[in-house]
C-alpha cells in the first residue's frame, strides 16, 4: 500500500473518497433500500411524489477530465503538450431540488454564507413556496422530501418539516451512490462547465440555468429509474458501495 493509500485507510476512506462502512452501517443501508423498494412496489406512483436535493461546489474554472481532453493523432505525430491546470480558487455552493418533472428550486449560496441550520430552514421555506407555485398538485396532495444535506439532521430542521407536514424519505448516511444528484444531475452540470473560464459567478449561474432548462421530463424519468436501479444494486451488494453504472446515461461516457 502506498502512502496515499495508507492515509486514506487511516482516515477510514475508500479509494473513491467515500467513508469505509461498518457492518452495522452496511446493514442499515440494505434495510433502508429494501424498505424503499417495497414502498415503490406497493405504491407505483411513489417516485412521482419525491423531491430530491443535494449540494455541490461549482468552480469558475474546472479543468477538463483526461477523457474530455483526449485528442486523435497518428502514431508518428508528436505527443501534444498540455499545461497542468487546477481548479480556480473561487467556488460557489449550489443546492438543487428537483423531481421527476424538472428543477423545482436552485439556491446559490453566496460567498461567506455558512450552510447552517438557520440558513437551511430559510432554504426550505423558499422551497415550500416554490412547490406551491410550480407543483400545485403535489402541494395539495402531499410530497416527499429526499435530502442528503448535513444540516437536515438538526432538531430544528426536523421540527420544521414535521410542523409543515412534509414527509421525509430517510437517506442512509455516507451513501453518495444513492442520490440522484450525485449519480445524474451534478455530473451532467460538471460535464458542461468543465474547461470553461467564466468571468463572473453570474456567468456560471446563467450557464447552469441553461443546462437545467435543457433537461426533459424523459431525462429526469430515466434519472429516477436509475436511482431505483442503484437502490437495488445496494441491496445486491449487501449494503456496501458498488461501482457506478453509467450505462443509463451514455452521454457521460462518450
Strands, helices and their partners?
Elements: H1 3-11, H2 23-42, E1 50-59, E2 91-98, E3 103-109, H3 117-134, H4 136-141, E4 144-147, H5 155-163, E5 167-169, H6 180-193, H7 201-214, H8 217-236
Molecular structure report:
With 254 residues, this protein is of the alpha/beta class. It has 8 helices and 5 strands. It has helices at residues 3-11, 23-42, 117-134, 136-141, 155-163, 180-193, 201-214, 217-236; strands spanning 50-59, 91-98, 103-109, 144-147, 167-169. It has a 5-stranded mixed β-sheet with strand order 3-2-1-4-5. α2 packs across α8 (217-236), α6 (180-193) packs across α7 and α6 (180-193) packs across α8. The two termini are 32 Å apart. 20% of the residues are buried. Mean pLDDT is 78; it is low at 1-17, 65-74, 81-87 and 245-254.
Amino acid at each position: 500500500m502506498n502512502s496515499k493509500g495508507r492515509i486514506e485507510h487511516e482516515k477510514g476512506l475508500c479509494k473513491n473518497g467515500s467513508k469505509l462502512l461498518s457492518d452495522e452501517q452496511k446493514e442499515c443501508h440494505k434495510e433502508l433500500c429494501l424498505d424503499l423498494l417495497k414502498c415503490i412496489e406497493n405504491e407505483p406512483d411513489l417516485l412521482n411524489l419525491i423531491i430530491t436535493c443535494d449540494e455541490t461546489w461549482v468552480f469558475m474554472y474546472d479543468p477538463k477530465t483526461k477523457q474530455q481532453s483526449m485528442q486523435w493523432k497518428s502514431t508518428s505525430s508528436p505527443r501534444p503538450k498540455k499545461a497542468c491546470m487546477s481548479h480556480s480558487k473561487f467556488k460557489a455552493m449550489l443546492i438543487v431540488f428537483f423531481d421527476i418533472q424538472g428543477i423545482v428550486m436552485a439556491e446559490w449560496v453566496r460567498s461567506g454564507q455558512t450552510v447552517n441550520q438557520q440558513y437551511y430552514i430559510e432554504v426550505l421555506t423558499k422551497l415550500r413556496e416554490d412547490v406551491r407555485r410550480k407543483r400545485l398538485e403535489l402541494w395539495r396532495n402531499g410530497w416527499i422530501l429526499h435530502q442528503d444535506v448535513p444540516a437536515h439532521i438538526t432538531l430544528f430542521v426536523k421540527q420544521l418539516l414535521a410542523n409543515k407536514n412534509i414527509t421525509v424519505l430517510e437517506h442512509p448516511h455516507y451513501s453518495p451512490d444513492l442520490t440522484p444528484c450525485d449519480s445524474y444531475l451534478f455530473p451532467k452540470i460538471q460535464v458542461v462547465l468543465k474547461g470553461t473560464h467564466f468571468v463572473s459567478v453570474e456567468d456560471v449561474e446563467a450557464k447552469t440555468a441553461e443546462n437545467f432548462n435543457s433537461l426533459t421530463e424523459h431525462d429526469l424519468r430515466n434519472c429516477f429509474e436509475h436511482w431505483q436501479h442503484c437502490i437495488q444494486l445496494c441491496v445486491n451488494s449487501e449494503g456496501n458501495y458498488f461501482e457506478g453504472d453509467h450505462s443509463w446515461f451514455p452521454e457521460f461516457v462518450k
